[in-house]
Amino acid sequence: MKAYMKKHDIISQRIFKAKVREVVFPHTTSILAPPEKVRTKGAGKKKKEFDTPRDPSYWEYVDASQESAKARQPSQSSQCSARQQSQSSQHSFKTQFPTYIRLYIEDIVDVVADGNCGFHAIAALLGWTEESWALVRSQLDKEIGLHKDVYSNVFDDNVESVRNSLKISKLGAQGKDKWMSLPDLGYVIATLYNVILVSLSRNLNMTFFPLNKSPSKETFGQSLLAIGFVNENHWVQIKLKSDCPLPPTSQKWKDFCSDTTKSWEVAYAARMKH
C-alpha cells in the first residue's frame, strides 16, 4: 500500500483509500445501498459500465483548497496599491541621491531589510539570488584574509574589525555591527569580483575600482554595479543608464592601487567630470 501511495498523486491516493475503506469496513462506506427497485413497464435502463464511487472527503478537500487559493489571490485593487507604494518608495529613494545622477537612474530594486541588505543587493547584482548573501559575506572575508597586506593599508590597520563585521553566528536578521560598511568593503567588492562599484547616498558618493586587477575586454563596459544607501539604514540595488556620469574615486584608491589598475580610472575619466 505504501508503494502505491508513493507512486500516485493525491487524487489517486484518495480514491484508493476510499476503496480500501469500503472493503475493510463496509458498514462505514459513504455509499448507501440502492433502494429496492419497483417494477415498472417499459425497457429497463442500461447499467453504466464505469461507475466510480464518490469520495466525499476528497471533494471536500478540493473545495476547501480552491476556497483557500481564492482567498490568497490578491485582488486587482491590492495589486494596484502595491504598485503605487513601490513607485512612491522609488521616488523617495531617488531624492536621496545626487541631483546630477537622478536622470540616469533607470530602476531602483529594494531588497530584504534584515541587516544583510547590502549583501542581498550585491548577490543579486552579481546575477545570483538575494539568498546568496551569506556566500558574499564569506567570500569577502576570505578575500581580506588572503590579502591582509593590501587591505591593512586601505583599512588603516582595522582589518580585524572589518572581518568581524562579516562573520555571523546565526542566519537571519543581523545587528548594526554586521551591516555592510562602505567605503572599506567597497574596495573589497570591486577587487574580489573585478567590477566597478558605484555607491550613492546623501553623504557618500564614490566609485570603487579594483585595487589589483586591470580591466579585461570581457568585463569592460559590462562590469558596473550600483547600490544606494537610503534612510540612513538600508541598501538597495540601482540600475544606471549606459554612459551615465559617475562619482569620483577616493584618494585611498589612488594611493594603494597597483600600477596596472590605474587604467580603470583613465578609461572612465570622462564620465567622472561633472
Description of the molecule:
Residues 35-56, 70-89 are annotated as: Disordered. Residues 73-89 have a biased composition (Low complexity). The chain has 274 residues and is α+β, with helices and mostly antiparallel strands. Helices cover 45% and strands 10% of the residues. It has helices at 2-7, 10-24, 56-72, 76-94, 99-102, 117-125, 133-146, 148-154, 159-166, 184-193, 251-256, 262-268; strands at residues 105-109, 196-200, 206-208, 224-230, 234-240. The longest helix is centred in the N-terminal third of the chain and has 19 residues, at 76-94. The model is unreliable at 8-12, 28-72 and 78-84 (pLDDT under 50).
